[in-house]
Write a structure and sequence with these properties.
Length: 148
């Protein structure tokens, strides 16, 4: 998220934020850069926030015994790349759960034959997160959050 690698993308009418894309990783931010300031004026606050979150995230994953990373939308190459990156960043045991939305009416698991990587497709509800509560309940049944 270096400023020199950011491009302003067309902002949605009525939005209070700029839509910004990073040229290095193609990451899009839609709710970080307030359009009440220029993009450059907003940058230092956003960069500070992202740096704090990154440091806290890295600290948490390095102090955890076991981690479940959930990625929504991706393909085989994406999840292999993610696994490689996470293997470098953490010493903890981890699993990756990849969730894709498809025009199916049920949950289905794709067997890619990868250790600690699970790929699941769920119905493509219009409200996705709110509309798929039953799917998320089923997928995450037995998963618990343990705080130290």
């Amino acid at each position: 998220m270096d400023f020199s690698n950011l491009n302003l993308v067309e902002t949605e009418p009525g939005s209070q934020h700029y839509k910004v894309r990073g040229t290095i990783n193609n990451c899009v931010s839609v709710h970080d850069f307030s359009n009440r300031k220029t993009l450059q004026e907003s940058y230092s606050d956003v960069k500070s926030k992202l740096d704090r979150r990154e440091n806290r995230f890295l600290q948490e994953i390095n102090n955890s015994e076991s981690i479940l990373f959930v990625r929504v939308m991706g393909d085989y190459k994406d999840v292999i790349d993610l696994h490689s990156l996470l293997s470098e960043e953490t010493k903890s045991n981890f699993n990756i759960l990849l969730i894709n939305h498809y025009e199916e009416n049920e949950i289905s698991e794709l067997d890619w034959g990868l250790n600690n990587i699970y790929s699941i497709s769920i119905p493509n509800e219009l409200t996705r997160w709110q509309g798929n509560d039953a799917c998320w309940d089923e997928i995450l049944k037995g998963v618990t959050l343990v705080s130290k």
